Amino acid sequence: MRLGAWRVALRIARRDALRAKGRSALIAAMIALPVLGVTGADVVHRSGQLTPAERVQRVVGGADALVTSLAPGTPVEQAPIAEDGAFTVPARPGDKPTAEQEKGASTDPAALVAALLPPGSALTPARPGPEAGADSPEGLVRTLTTEADLGDPIWRGRLDLVEGRAPSAPHEVAVTRAFLDRSGLKTGATTTLQGLERTTYTITGVVEHPSELGRVELVARPGELIEPLNTALAAGGPVAEKPSATRSGWLVRLPSGASLDWAAVQRFNAHGYTLTARSVAIAPPPEQAVPYYRDAYRYHDPTAANNTKMVVAVVSGMALLEIALLAGPAFAVGARRSRRQLALLGAAGGSRAHVGAVVLGGGVVLGATGAVVGVVLGTAVVALLRPRIEQFGGVRFGHFAVPPLDLLAIAGIGLFTALLAAALPALQAARRSVTAGLTGRDTVRAPSRLVTFAGLGLLVLGAVLAMYGAGAVKRDQPGAGGYDTRTLTVLGGSVTAEIGLLLCTPMLVALIGRAAGRLPLGPRLALRDAARHRSRTAPAVAAVMAAVAGAVAIGVYSTSTDAEDRRDYRPQAPYGAVQLMTYVDGPRLTEERAELEKQLSGLGPRGDLGQVEYRFCDNCSSVVQLQGPPERRGLGSPPHIAAGDVTVLHNLFAVHDPAAEQALAAGKLLVFDRSLVGADGKAVMVLRGGGGAPLQPGEVPKPDVQEVPVDAVLVDNPAAADFAQGLALPSALPALGLTSRPSGSVWLPATPPDRKAQQRAAAAAVRLDRFATLEVERGYQPTGDALSLALTGFAALVVLGAAGIATGLAAADSRQDQATLAAVGAPPRIRRSMAGLQCTLIALLGALLGAVNGFVPAVGLLKSRASGFGAKPALITAPWGELLLIVLVLPVVAGLLAALFTRSRIPLGRRLS
To answer: Which of 242, 367, 549, 720 fits a disulfide with 672 by CB distance 3.0 to 4.6 angstroms?
Structure first.
């Protein structure tokens, strides 16, 4: 066709779009929505890609460089910006330390850094302090600590004050927003730190790390926090477990005219230090001059980027498929509504190409409109929601990026999708005869058997391929894109099966129409109308099927994985049990127990728990274990024997057996695993370490491993065996040459305490013993799956949307038939029932096919994961709640909504002679 003919076609398409505003807006919206989403994602991604100047600003702030003592005395390799990657280089056997290594290991770090920098450089310490515990209304909050003069511009860009004022007086601090959210405190509130309880700190401002918004940190003035905390830690006070980092760091201001190059970075690396210099980051050396890039493959996961690319490709392809399937029927209905106009074009001398060009022109007009609107709205939404997006992602944008080439490509994809959706309706319109178009009578063609048989073949082939990949293909064979051959085979088979079902959809719709003869008038008309207009019904069914298949696949995989995790979960105590684990003894332990019972009411009787040990010399002991069959060693119950009384038997092992209680009170050893007790009723204790005990004159050395048989009472309780091999009364141990080391207490309340109460009680315990832990056994806790939830919601939206769109198009397309029914006396409710039943049919058929198809990849991947060495059998579990919602509830809801919003009466149309 010539360019002039395309101009005419586009003009006709534009006028037709303006004439049918509702249908045009629907198609444009379907194109615009995914374009909006992809545009928003691209703008967010590009805005988060920092330029070298922005990246180094977040590392060095307003300084010229940052020096960090990574491993003084050990050579280091780093990226031009050390925070992007750095590691130590292990010495080879026989290598002698270089002069730089000896100097780096023996010289004071601050003096060495000053010597390696240009003369006149100024150093500002920038080192992290120890992790600490801060008091709050909710209990104890773990926080990082550091020191900084927030009034100095050298920190801007690295650590920014965003609210309040900088600390300016002793014992004033600034904290991050995450600290306030976790602690429940506000600006102006006070807090104390463990180990420094006599000092009260006042919060004066809120700071943030632009690249780590979720960081929980407390910032004090230089010299006021880190050293006091380290002193308390060294003295054994109840502060945090250890410093968050031991590296020293300095922000560097260079004298006027001085600069740092890559050679300076390598000098620091030779001494065991990293150097991030602004000048090097902005103008980095070539990659071949950076040893880090040569050796970093040892620490790099090549599949991480591929995973992101795979997800983006799948989501984009799925969106493209959904739009084409949903927008295609809209173009087809538009072409049928304009068939008289198109037939007049043909009667006036227009060729089939001209008729098809008019329909394709509608795709160009509406696709371009939707693409432009989507790009503009996507950019505007990101600009409007920028603060929330940054907070959710935990990183500030470097700048607001609007990449023109990216947005042009996204708009082009939207336009291409519209053309793809309009291609088949354009072909059908071009093939329609002029006579049929002028009279408004379309011929109904039977679905192609060849296409149906091809679909069945692809369905069987895909299912077989997926199962073969799961069971027969070897694991870890290299494939494409960082994925092994097994995974690619399973996914390839699943996609093939889904394409097969798509090809079978028109025949399924036709078969349902044939089965409608015995139904009442309304359902019969609805099913036959859906079957007659398969070009409108089948794509909607396919769109529902594709969306439901993805949601079901993720749902089955997530639910089955969760079931396997639940199967493999090993509780530490009966459900609801409260366990205090501590390493102190005597009055401090008594005080801890009393404090916990004060904090947590209704705990019930307390069982004091210990661990049976073999003490073979002063300050020398080992854990006593029971000997089991060789095939069970290293498996099963925890390898130790608990020490406690009848209350421990009740609270920890949930055993309420009078015979077992009497045996324990009599000093007998209770054993909970049948395999640990011999036929003679004895269990064998394994005592280790005796061979290392110092000997007295004339004393015979003991063997390093001793096996001591003891009388045992079997309490065959596999659940109790999960907590310990056995239980012994502490007073009965000296007769066996053994001792008991207190390890805490256990309670079994009627209901477990809530998490806030647990947090407050844990804070009280840590104040008395910094190594104490308080655990509440809450059973297996399934993790929420955001992807599964999102896909289920997406599938529900597509089920309702696709069914509603197809029903609306059917109502618009069948007005003449509806008018004929009204003219011959059909009741008004027939139109409502037809709309509701058609909508239910589309949603139900698509959901059923999608549910069946979704099991194929999920089962294949689960069996693939469970076929490795030592793997347990795969558990195939369906998310019945989601399936019930998608397969049954949503189709009914869609049908009811369609019937509710469908008008019962329509005006009579014109009659054809």
So the answer is: 720
